[in-house]
Write a structure and sequence with these properties.
The chain has 185 residues and is mainly alpha-helical. It is built from ten helices and no strands.
Length: 185
């Protein structure tokens, strides 16, 4: 599995694969920029803005390693775990943990908010089934006890909202200084 050791490598994967689509109607880069902008506009910490920007990097790794993204309708490729692990040497857990938990946050919200499921995109509904569906009570307790569960829920909100077909998002380059400032190396 890919292990990022520099911001330049992160920029590279978005440059090479960011214009690809996966199971949503927006490109990977558009979705990333929309999510990061929503996080920034809400006053999120720098770490959470970076998490919002990079939360789906696991999909890009899949593209880079396999030549095509595994569709959300076939198998659960565990993009959240792959993404968080691939970034773990470059960013602290306050960046990688919300990334690792953003799918769990969807499952938690489906279990705890009766109106949430109706707000999901078609692709998110389809992937939810493969990801285990709404959480059971014991899973909810485990998720809620994680110190980054609140950040993951915030990230999930931006993830769900960051799918506009007419985004007014900045260029990826505008986030590079933030990535460099937050990176461990």
């Amino acid at each position: 599995m890919k292990q990022f050791s520099s911001v330049a490598e992160v920029i590279d994967i978005y440059t090479n694969f960011g214009n690809e689509f996966y199971s949503e109607d927006v490109t990977q880069i558009s979705h990333a920029l929309q999510c990061a902008t929503l996080a920034q506009d809400s006053g999120a910490s720098d770490e959470l803005i970076v998490a919002a920007l990079l939360h789906d990097i696991g999909h890009l790794i899949d593209l880079a390693e396999n030549g095509s993204a595994t569709t959300a309708f076939e198998i659960d490729a565990k993009h959240e775990a792959i993404g968080a692990q691939s970034l773990s040497k470059l960013f602290r857990p306050d960046v990688t943990a919300p990334i690792a938990l953003h799918v769990e946050a969807k499952r938690w919200r489906c279990a705890t908010d009766s109106t949430y499921h109706a707000t999901l995109s078609q692709a998110s509904v389809a992937s939810l089934v493969l990801q285990g569906g709404p959480m059971h009570a014991d899973e909810q307790q485990r998720f809620e006890s994680h110190p980054q569960s609140g950040a993951a829920i915030q990230l999930r909100t931006w993830d769900d909202a960051g799918k506009s077909l007419e985004p007014l998002a900045p260029h990826f380059g505008q986030f590079i200084p933030l990535l460099q400032r937050i990176a461990l190396t």
